[in-house]
Amino acid sequence: MPAADVGEGGRVVPGEFNWWLQHRAVPLVGGPVELRGALDLETTQAGVMPRRLPAWTKEQYQDPSVYGVTVMPSGVRLVFRTDARALEFEVLTSTGQLDSDPHPRPTGMLELVLDGALVGRQQAPVGHVLRMAGPGAVQRLIPGEPATVRFAGLPAGMKDVELWLPQQTPTELVSLRADGEVLAPLPDGRRRWVHHGSSISHCI
């Protein structure tokens, strides 16, 4: 199994940017990367936010909490092919924290799948924190910064890549960098499963 690192020395480092990847930026929109599991991309100050419902559905939300569920990226992943030996993903997450809790809510995992096999899992870095006195209380935003998650030591040669986002932590995609060529994924002839479920199937 290849090594998977988060930033330098295995830690998340805000603003991490390796010089040898500087000229290998890969566009997240309008390029070879395909975003599966999301039906909308919302532009933010940091980048783009995947949403699991189309933009036109916003007018039908009768409760603000519905929006929060649509940006929980359960089942959302970035898909492409590459011969890179190292990949860097810069993300900005948003998680909650009760005033009575010493730490923010766990952000979940970023998982890297190569050729259909799970090869790396990393804790998603903490970005924005929404503080509140209790469930349903007014939220107070503690701004955070984007951070870089790095997967290194990947096998040589062209491979199919899927980067799965955390199932319940809203994640803004800031940038993707690679030390090799990045191509669009090949057509997938498998049947597509469209699931309408509850919080249990959402894993929250």
Q: What's the arrangement of secondary structure elements?
A:
Elements (H helix, E strand, L loop, with lengths): L3 E2 L7 E2 L10 E2 L7 E3 L3 E4 L4 E4 L12 H7 L6 E6 L4 E12 L10 E6 L2 E7 L4 E5 L7 E3 L4 E5 L7 E6 L6 E8 L3 E2 L15 H4 L2
Parallel strand pairs: 8-11
Antiparallel strand pairs: 1-13, 2-13, 3-15, 4-7, 5-6, 7-14, 7-16, 8-13, 8-15, 9-10, 9-14, 11-12
What this model shows, in words?
The chain has 204 residues and is mainly beta. The chain has 2 helices and 16 strands. The protein has helices spanning 64-70, 199-202, and strands spanning 4-5, 13-14, 25-26, 34-36, 40-43, 48-51, 77-82, 87-98, 109-114, 117-123, 128-132, 140-142, 147-151, 159-164, 171-178, 182-183. The strands form 3 sheets. Strands 1, 2, 3, 8, 11, 12, 13 and 15 form an 8-stranded mixed beta sheet that branches. Strands 4, 7, 9, 10, 14 and 16 form a 6-stranded antiparallel beta sheet that branches. Strands 5-6 form a two-stranded antiparallel ribbon. A hairpin with a 7-residue loop joins β11 and β12. The two termini are 29 Å apart. Residues 1-22 have low confidence and may be disordered.
